[in-house]
Design brief:
The complex is a heterodimer of chains A (210) and B (179).
Chain A lengths: L7 H5 L5 H13 L1 H55 L22 E3 L21 H18 L9 E3 L1 H4 L9 E9 L5 E10 H8 L2
Antiparallel strand pairs in A: 1-2, 3-4
Chain B lengths: L11 H29 L3 H20 L7 H19 L21 H20 L2 H11 L4 H8 L3 H18 L3
Helix pairs in contact in B: 1-2, 1-3, 2-3, 3-6, 5-7, 6-7
Classes of the chains: A mainly alpha (210), B mainly alpha (179).
Chain lengths: 210, 179
Amino acid sequence: MCDFSGKLIAWMDRELPEQEAAVVEQHLESCSECRSEIDAYKRVSSELEAYCDRAMASNMRRGDTHWVSVLSAAGAVAAVVALFFVWPRIPVQPPPFQPSNGVESASTAVIAKRLPAPVRPVQKIHRRQVVSPVQIHSTIVATVQNQDAYIPTNEPIIQIAIPADEMFPPGAVPEGIHFAADLTIAADGSAERLRLSPQLAVFERRTTLP
Amino acid sequence: MSGDAAPLALPLSRLSTGACEATTLYRELRKPLLRYLVCLGLSSDEAQDVVQDAFLVLHRHLASGGSQENIRGWLFRVAHNQARNRQNRYDRNFSAPSDPELDALLDEATPERALLKKEKFKQLGKAIRLLSASERECLLLRASGLRYREISEVLGVATSTVSDTVDRAIKKLAEKCNV
């Protein structure tokens, strides 16, 4: 190894005093080994610079992609939540009723003696809103009017007889059990909800028959 | 930071001059500082935090009439110390930067050249990780354009030590990378 090897990098970086730098330059004119060393050091230095540039670029991009992934995940969650609220609710329709060919069994259930009372509309009152008594009164009156409109008095009470065999397997319903059905009719006239509640026949007879 | 706030009695003219100088220095030195910190092993977010803090300190330094001699070395020293504080705070050892993403190197003219460059970077990354912390810091500060005297101020060592360390580190890299 040449004696000037320890000064080559400092000379390359222009960190040597003028006199020392001149001596090194003079030596380089005659020493091919030192010249090739300097070429190698220059290549390493430039590669190191390129490496640092690339490291910074990739690191910054990684930070960006991290935020992009976080934001896209948050957006996806928000979209799902928004869809949940915006998507139209499709009411579950009961299967169409198919009566048997006019044959009523002994355990025929008597259903729906009356229409259920309409659900009182939910009144949304803000916390800071002061509701005057006049407003409350008018609301109640409106509700009663709606009830009158909901149950027409000139139409007969609907009674539907469904054979128990059509709804339950044979033997599943004990003798003397009836089912009272509450049928809720929607505003457009379609069946909104059907609720069956079992009742003893004796109790039913006592309450319904004179 | 609130304890280091600039005094209120500072003349407005001096404050505006300091702000102008800090802005100019920010444009010039933000990128080299970020590169140094990222190559030191900080994440991009951490590096940006450190750079922001360093320039805030610089602004206060200039606004309070601090010395403007070798302001570049001063700024690197502040950033370097803040990076070291984070290291101590989190009890974490900064390693050399992770290898740059390989996909980012596919901008070469031919696939063969891209592959060759990938291999070179891998080799260089491995060689950098084998260096000691002081060798790595000296090399990275040198790659940021600092003179040996500035590096010595940043690291708090003698200039001759910096010269020897840089010499040793470059030779190690050249040997490991077969350049």
